[in-house]
Design brief:
Elements lengths: L5 H14 L16 H21 L8 H10 L6 H12 L16 E13 L2 E12 L4 E7 L4 H15 L5 E4 L6 E5 L3 E4 L1 H10 L2 E4 L9 H15 L4 E2 L2 H15 L5 H5 L13 E6 L5 E4 L2 E4 L8 E6 L3 E6 L2 E7 L7 E2 L6 H6 L8 H4 L2 H11 L3 H10 L5 H7 L5 H10 L10 H13 L5
Parallel strand pairs: 1-4, 1-8, 4-7, 11-15
Antiparallel strand pairs: 1-2, 2-3, 5-6, 9-12, 10-11, 12-13, 13-14
Length: 446
């Protein structure tokens, strides 16, 4: 028989119906307990959630379905949790989003993110910031650790990365952080940060900003953040100094990227450009304490500049002061506010006239080792202390501290400053050798 007759087809259909599991049409079934009043109250709750979302953006304060159910029960309604969750799902009716798998060529795309990490530095828990840069094509991820998330740090992370890579990607992808988007214009228009635009023009990359709350649009760097946090700082998060934490990160990243294809990708990057100097140039006036105020902190300059205007080049970690285009001094940039960075050598002329002022000076107290040496050996002869610093003012503070180090004994220090004869028999052989060594290096006058 070539095919089933109409009668045979009917028989087959009847047999399948008899053997199949029973089904029930529930499409028209109504909830016996779910009332119109309950429905209106649920609509009010969901409307409030929409307004909250507009005000706060996507956040973790959104009510859960259980919390909504608790509100309804607290209102006096008698209903099951499953009924309410089904109604919420029905009202929100959010279809699942479809994602399009992406493939990128070498050198095409770099993804950027800026995140927080918790570290214990010198026994104190603090929040630090990590710039994470990630290449989907090369499966390469890198990061730089910072003490803040200011614009200078954001810019510095790009320059450091391009310098390390020896080239630039064609496109860099960001989310909507303040260092990228200055302000929103309407629903879809964004005004980009002018400094980022300058950076992109210099290095030649395009800026791509994701849609709001769409982390999946830069998924590689999102996963890189999780990997770096877990592989680098999850087990080892205590360090003696910030510098130690920075060096540890760099070493661990080398291991983390051993299987990446970054060597192959480097050949496809845009040509290398000389490192971009990112200093903010500021004109500042020197106050009566010979301080300049920069970003709410104070930095000392040589005393002859009191009352004058000087130029400060402010980098993310250093401040360099110029007067009439001549280099004057440098300071490590301070994190915080109303703090002071000072150098005793900036006040030598004033201290020579007022030697008693050095004892309680902030310049001396800010250097505990130097202050300890002064209190131990020079508290009654401040002029000699100032003279010795003057003779060695071209050396750095660590070298000056070494010259005044107490392991030379007070006799040697007194001899080096006053050139009075002493009985060398009162000095140990190791002290004599140290004294001769410093004489040869020119750190102590013969």
């Amino acid at each position: 028989m070539e095919g089933l007759t109409d009668e045979g087809a009917n028989v087959k259909g009847i047999q399948e119906e008899i053997c199949s599991e029973p089904t029930y049409d529930t499409s028209g079934r109504k909830c016996r307990k779910y009332t119109k009043e309950m429905d209106m109250y649920l609509d009010e709750i969901l409307a409030d959630e929409v307004e909250k979302g507009k005000l706060l953006g996507r956040n973790k304060q959104q009510l859960t379905q259980v919390q909504i159910y608790d509100l309804i029960v607290a209102k006096g309604f008698d209903i099951s949790l499953s009924t309410i969750t089904n109604k919420i799902r029905e009202k929100r009716n959010k279809p699942k989003e479809c994602f399009i798998r992406q493939e990128y060529d070498y050198g095409d795309r770099l993804e950027y993110d800026f995140v927080e990490v918790k570290l214990v530095i010198d026994g104190e828990l603090g929040t630090y910031h990590m710039a994470v840069l990630s290449s989907p094509a090369g499966d390469f991820r890198w990061a730089f650790l910072y003490k803040n998330q200011k614009k200078e740090v954001f810019m510095d992370s790009h320059v450091r990365f391009f310098e390390m890579m020896g080239g630039t990607y064609k496109e860099v992808v960001y989310d909507n952080i303040k260092n990228v988007v200055t302000r929103f214009i309407g629903r879809n228009e964004k005004e980009l940060n002018s400094d980022l635009i300058k950076l992109s023009l210099y290095y030649g990359f395009d800026i791509n900003v994701t849609n709001c709350f769409k982390g999946n649009e830069k998924g590689h760097v999102e996963s890189s953040v999780k990997i770096i946090r877990n592989k680098v700082y999850a087990m080892h998060y205590k360090f003696k100094t910030f510098e130690e934490a920075v060096n540890y990160l760099q070493q661990e990243l080398i291991v983390l990227n051993e299987k990446s294809k970054i060597k192959e990708e480097r050949d496809y990057l845009l040509p290398y450009k000389p490192k971009l100097e990112l200093a903010n140039i500021k004109s500042v006036k020197v106050n009566k304490y010979s301080f300049v105020r920069i970003d709410n902190n104070y930095y000392s300059v040589p005393e002859y500049l009191v009352g004058k205007e000087v130029t400060a080049k402010v980098y993310y970690d250093d401040i360099i002061i110029y007067s009439n285009l001549h280099h004057v001094c440098e300071h490590k940039k301070i994190d915080g506010a109303n703090e002071i960075s000072t150098d005793t050598r900036h006040y030598l002329d004033t201290l020579a006239k007022k030697p008693g002022a050095i004892k309680n000076s902030y310049a001396l107290k800010s250097l505990p080792k130097l202050k300890s040496i002064y209190d131990t050996y020079f508290s009654k002869k401040p002029k000699e202390f100032i003279d010795l610093i003057r003779k060695n003012q071209n050396k750095n503070i660590d070298e000056i501290v070494e010259i005044l180090s107490p392991d030379l004994s007070s006799n040697i220090i007194a001899f080096s400053t006053t050139k009075n004869h002493i009985n060398l028999g009162d000095i140990t052989r190791s002290q004599t050798n140290k004294y001769n060594e410093l004489c040869i290096k020119g750190r102590i006058p013969l």
